[in-house]
Amino acid sequence: MSNQNMQGIIMTSNWKNIISSMLMGCFVYVEVCGQTLPSAPFQLSGKEKRQGYHVLFDGTSMDQWKGNTAEYVLEEGTITMRPSQRGGGNLYTKNTYTDFILRFEFWLSPAGNNGLGLRHDYVEPDKGYSGMELQILDNEHPDYANLEPGQYHGSVYKIIPAKRGFLKPAGEWNIQEVRAKGDHIQVILNGEMILDGHLKEATARLKPGSFQNAVLNESGHIAFLGHGSVVKFRNIRIRERKAFCCAQQAYRARVSSVR
Question: What is the pTM of this model?
Answer without folding.
Answer: 0.79
